[in-house]
Known about the structure:
Blueprint: E1 4-10, H1 17-30, E2 35-41, H2 52-71, E3 76-79, H3 87-93, E4 98-99, H4 101-109, E5 116-119, H5 132-148, E6 154-157, H6 166-173, E7 177-178, H7 180-193
Parallel strand pairs: 1-2, 1-3, 3-4, 5-6, 6-7
Helix pairs in contact: 2-3, 4-7
Amino acid sequence: MTTMKIRLIVPITGLNHQEIQKRVDYLTSIADPETTIDYRQVKNGPPAIESEADAVLAGPDILKLAVEAQKDGVDAAIIWCGGDPSIDAARKLVDIPIIGPGESMRAIASTLGKKPCNIIPDIPVLKMRTNLTRTTQAIKEIIQDKATKGEGDVFYLGCLALYGLGPSLREALGVPILDGAEASLKTAELTVKLGLSHSRIAYPRKH
């Protein structure tokens, strides 16, 4: 069985090794048996991505890490942020698939309902996992409100700090809820298995 290598590009500096390793361990637990996962973190960038300015600050190191991933022989890389920062530019620099959790969730959501709805609780990114009970309850309330008002019929968790919450939320609420960790990993695995990568028509090579 051929091993598939997937790398997380972590675009923020506010997570330490132990916190990132928890994310890698979770992904490994839901990955296909042949998939191995590692990560690289930006050296220069914002503690968290909360705005367009933060995404721009993270950009240069994201691009460096995308190029490094290809040189290291990685099969696909995931930019670990629901906003998919610098994804278009990264795709112009490398031939391996560069996967965005936001894109992945929206693509799957579009097949499951008519009104995909982005869900992000009003909690700072680096504090979303401080009290998961509070965070989960906030998400439930938002989803129930959106569903009641007819503003959404399929929902996706727009921040990767919410990784791993999808299964329990789906079970509790009985509606499709997409988790960026699941969606991006499975998109990466499928893309590699099918021998696909981004189109050079859409993303012309930048030398």
